[in-house]
Amino acid sequence: MQFVLEIIDFWTTTHWFIAFVIACVVNISVYVITAKCLDFVIRYAVDTKFGSFIDKRELTPKQTFIEMKFGIIACCIFALGSIFSRMLFDGIWPLTFFSLLIQVASFVLFYETYSYFVHRLLHTKPLVKFHSVHHSSVRVTPWSAYSVHPVEATFIGFSAPIFMLLFPLSLSVALTLHILGMMFTILLHSNYSHTTGPALLKFPFSYAEYHSKHHFYGGVNFGFTHRFWDWAFGTGVER
Known about the structure:
two-stranded antiparallel sheet; single chain; globular
């Protein structure tokens, strides 16, 4: 724990460019390690008949390379957003457990709303050319999660600083939610349906099945972790 505190203290006080480089390394590492591990596990699960790909179309020869390229660029933009978070955070840790709950709940509610309406905005005529980068993959893979245009990456990466302008958010909470959010987004794009075994194993991948319909149909299933806004605006498709 002391080592973690020392790293955080160094990151918050060092020159902004050094902090930016560190943030780039962290974001790229989370993206590459999570996508690589999930891709490996899913391929093994499909080969051993524990599940199947939702969309079975073959990838183009350079699809994964293109996705990784845009994903790494996106991670650098996320790192830039974290530099603004560094200027706006409200303490390293929440002062109380109640404060922790309030911060987590308020940011999750904010981001669910923010991501839904930004996602819908990206499907409008002025911005769809940017979002088309994300939809250019033949079918999604874990690497597709952050294969986005820099404009879209900016919308994603600056969500926390925007929130911090309105509400207090501790740095530890912001960092933890960001990493978990990245991992969940990669899961959303896993293109995997777990068909055998306990329901507990099937549940996480139900999100991937829901989101895969967005990539198949286009203008549906915009939600991130919850389907409330899709339900409220009639944009949800279950089957």
